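Cross-posting from the modeling subforum.

Setting up a comparison between two proteins and wanted a second pair of eyes on the formatting. Protein 1 (sequence, then structure tokens):
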Amino acid sequence: MTIEHDVPATMRDGVVLRADVYRPSAEGPWPVLLTRLPYGKNQSLLAAVMDPVGKARRGFIVVVQDTRGRFASDGEWEPWTYEMDDGYDTVRWAAALPGSNGAVGMFGGSYLGNTQWMAALAKPPELKAISPMITWSEPGDGLFARGGAVELGITVAWSLMQGADTLLRRHADDPMAQGQALMALIGDTDAVADTTYWELPTGHLPLFERHGIAELGFERSLREPEWSAACRVAGRQAEVDLPSLHTGGWYDIFCQGTLDNFTAMQAAGRPAKLVMGPWSHTGQMGYLGDVNFGLAASTELLGFRGRFADLELGWLRQWLAPEDSPLQPELPPVLLFVMGINQWREEQEWPLARAVDTDLFLRSGDRLAFAVPEAGEGTDSFTYDPADPVPTTGGALLMSNEFPPGPFDQAKVEARPDVLVYTTDPLAEDLEVTGRVRAHLTAATDAPATDWVVRLCDVDPSGVSRNIVDGIVRAVATPGEFTEQVVDLWSTSHVFRAGHRIRVQVTSSNFPRWDRNLNTGEPIDQGTQSRPAHQEIAHDTARPSRIVLPVIPA
């Protein structure tokens, strides 16, 4: 095979983007695989994941391109703003490369997955299939925000990471200024857990102005809706008339987005497949958090079906070069990893039609039960102080390294006085929950605005409680008035084993994954002062609170 570095592609406005092109040494023609990224096409960790050399050895021309304004490419960096037009132009350019058979497929995850969607929405005729991994659907539900709260964890960490190349370019002619700017940025990166995440106002973080880097936050998405719309997939999937392979993880920050993109494509009648593993955004092996899901859970084995990378290439080849596609095991429409029993299972659909929404009620005495509450069970209360928020401990997240994703022991969280805990009796038999989980709280606060956080946990026979899914909702309130608050915990597939107990946590913060509600009602781009809030959760006959589980009948 041969590798050509920094191959130029001229966009419609004259800006030159550059790519590395990996090609088999034989004449071909070969199908083309394209990925476009803002992280540097020579970044070693990403190169290991994308494996362009391995793909070229399997008979593909592989194009790895720096997006506009990043690393080897010219132009100004503005996240996702140019990805539709640049994606269209790049697909057409890649299809015309020497040795190409004229058919292009796209691959990659996260931002690389969104560049696929944007190119597909632009409809270049040579694009034949996309394979987006761990990619959002609605940016207001996982990327910028969740339930109205700011996704602070990813906003700060991702912005700081992208800022380095911006500063290198800005001070390219002044090594002294360049070094000082980078040192200041690294200082904020190193102090993110203790200082940077705590800065206020959340909606206009001082770090953006301090370093002169792109503001990638929720407030900007509200202030400039056209900016955030440039990366929105939700509601537009039916415009894409292409086959798609969707891959995600139960502990990925874009877990629900992956599922939503798949269901929309399936509903539109497009050829679509789904793979969901016990994975995070950056980890697809068999161990996550403090749980060992087994070697078969990894992308290297995929339940002994083979390497995911090989199955993905086989799937892409059938759409890009069907005449050269050898017979190989085919992925089912849906392949799910069921946690708790740690098994892969093949399905024909998502969500599963046989799932039965089942209520589990919060009860007095810290109980959680299938039976409806009785009159007079009253309320539970706690005080939420934004100056002392509940610390992020695991979950479906993407943050700085101090806050790893996945399932973790919740003992320290559940010992706090500002976390209410409700637990079932030990289960007599296995209970499978596969689908989207929601909580309905009857809640009151003495503040004009506050947050409600709900977390579903599995308590093993030794008493260790581990997080499965969680969610948040930001609420404007009439002080003292009980209202229903619906919290979307997103989706999972998990079996609570016989002898285990189901637990629900209720609190008002999960920081710094989500920003703190200051309980004042001030706009997030202005608020710098906070106040404690007295919170109440009702759980009687007239004012029930419950979590709704999609239970799979035995």
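Protein 2 (same layout):
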Amino acid sequence: MTEIEKERRTGPAAVALGALSGVLAGFAALAFAEAVAGLVRPQAGPVVAVGGAAIDRTPAAVKDWAIRHFGTDDKLVLQLGILALLTLFALLLGISALRFRRTAALGVLLFGVVGAAAATSRPDSGGAADALPSVVGAVVGAAVLHVLAGRLAPARPAAPAAASDGPGWDRRGFVITATAAALASAGAGALGRSLGGAAGRDAVASRRDVRLPAPGSPAAAVPRGAALRVPGISPFTTPNGSFYRVDTALVVPKVDATSWRLRIHGKGVTRPRTLTYDDLLRRELIERDITLTCVSNEVGGPYVGNARWVGVRLADLLAECGVRPPSKGGPADQLVARSVDGMTIGSPVEDVMDGRDALLAVGMNGEPLPFAHGFPVRMVVPGLYGFVSACKWIEDIELTTFDAYDPYWVKRGWARKAPVKTQSRIDTPKPFARPKTGTVMVAGVAWAQHRGIDKVEVRVDDGPWQEARLAAEDSRDTWRQWSIPWEATKGGHTLTVRATDRTGRLQTDRRTRTVPDGASGWHSVVVTVD
């Protein structure tokens, strides 16, 4: 290779064009992969598959950190991070293709292998077909990179005289190929989005057609005084659009209610059953206000919400299948719920069948479950953290034992059993607020599902604890609002809250993190009074 040829391949212009080639190849790979995923299933796309595999292999502490810092945007951050890494590798492969064209193309194919392996190893994998999006995308990407890099290769001089002018490259061919690749990729991407949307249309239509029957056991009206009129306090009933969502699904499953099935089987099930959505709607439905809490909720965190749920009593259904709790001689002590995306959640059979309103829920706040919250059916068990009770998009219930099987979160260091801890939170004033001197209303919520809240106390700085006024109680399975007027004086102050549940147990001041069975400690906010 002459010095001129080296310059042609390593100069700033060549490097920039090589990087552009890599980006175009990467774009083509992802776009065509998504188009094929639209034909196979959206969850088989390489970004979703690799993202899901990354979530599965992320240590509990790291996952908890992501939820704490990014909240419900943690999945978006993960996908953007994957795309950023893919872009970086695409740039490097494009530049390396200037000198090692075949090796760089093989690098693209290697990423296809990674994507295919991730897709086929997911718990909800549909088999070998899930590898197709990554494989097709990689082949297209490798071909695009190989051709574009070829267009950038210095042309061999036809005669010695031409060598003094230096070899050139196929500018026209590069522009035409790059433009064609970009347009074809954009078209493939649009096709993939269209096909992916079409795959969920039947599910959307099935939800739209649902007419929930009137519950045979309706919830009582929310008591007057349960919702305090204090600006800044959380509403007693959390709207569906504001209800927290914490799960591992990068793509929200859209399940057609008309084809949905639920299988109940396992240890101690003498009469296994498979139910349809209509089977559930034909049963007596009950309606209850129940507060749910995520185990990833830090002290004072936002991952708690209260909704009015409609569903079927899970205990009645299990009893019809011959299931008995351990206290009555049943051989199974764990109920493992499986969702359509492969998630497994284990709940104590004793808790599910002890008389509490454990539900297979079909409705939320007066409408069919939203897709993001588990349509068509999910589990709701008052008093247990979501990771041991609240299986969304449920399709299978297996009765087994804790010794025989570890569900998803237990395998990752979380507890097998996790009753909700007594907690309280200051909603107003907000941290670092600057209220004026005089009367300031301090208010918030407290919860101890299935036990109930008996008392809430507030302390200013290191002063004495003062009992707050409790709002009317809806039920022991819902949170309870509270408030107390504070005569604020100038300067910085720390406000702290604690609660006592109906069993007489005081909320502990011992600070613990969320892993393995939920955070504990008193919530405090610092304010400056002007």
